[in-house]
Amino acid sequence: MGCFECCIKCLGGVPYASLVATILCFSGVALFCGCGHVALTGTVTILENHFSKITSDHAMLTDVIQLMQYVIYGIASFFFLYGIILLAEGFYTTSAVKELHSEFKTTICGRCISGMFVFLTYILGVAWLGVFGFSAVPVFLFYNMWSTCAAMRSPVANLTSVDSICVDVRQYGIIPWNATPGKACGITLSDICNTSEFYLSYHLYIVACAGAGATVIALLIYMMATTYNFAVLKFKSREDCCTKF
């Protein structure tokens, strides 16, 4: 066998679907965790400086955001390891499916592990659909504030009533109704939209939402690849049992 044939044989054992899913998963999780962490910090700064100047009014929200940031650390660590494990499992099942080694035989333990990854990836996919939906909530809130500021700056806006245009974050349940001031109107609202914290947090939330969507797509690719490989391994095991007799 020449060098070219050997290279072709080796490339045939690469699980391209799992490889693409791993790259997409790492990228999506990195965007979601990194951008989400910074955006949450910027959100706390905006609330403290403009909407809730009494610390006790948003103490619970601050604790929840800190907890979410710790959860982000755990998500990043878990998916880094899980992506590597799924990629290794992809190499294992691809070698078995394509029979790169003539002496390769599937075992019950190997099939059970593959089935476990199919089930776990399905559960994670459903969970990340929820994460994707949840990550769209701050994008919606920031978009409402940004569109309100854009409406005030519009040439067709009635500048005589600009002070009557307000954004009340208390209606979203972010801070309690007794928080002061709780809302921003007119020039104050426009100044908030021009701050670097607002601009950065808004765009980081968008990127974090896109990262969550990329992770969902990666998990879907994982599910298709692992399900196919598990089905072929199961069929191969039945074929091996039939050839024994």
Automatic annotation (TrEMBL):
Record field: transmembrane: 19-47, 67-92, 113-143, 204-228
Membrane topology: Multi-pass membrane protein
Chief location category: membrane
Keyword Metal-binding attached: no
Keywords: Membrane, Transmembrane, Transmembrane helix
GO-annotated molecular function: structural constituent of myelin sheath
GO biological process: axon development; central nervous system myelination
Entries under InterPro entries matching the protein: Myelin_PLP, Myelin_PLP_CS
One CC-aspect GO term: myelin sheath
Keyword Transmembrane: yes
UniProt-annotated location(s): Membrane
Record family assignment: Belongs to the myelin proteolipid protein family.
Full protein name: Neuronal membrane glycoprotein M6-b
Taxonomic source organism: Alosa alosa (allis shad)
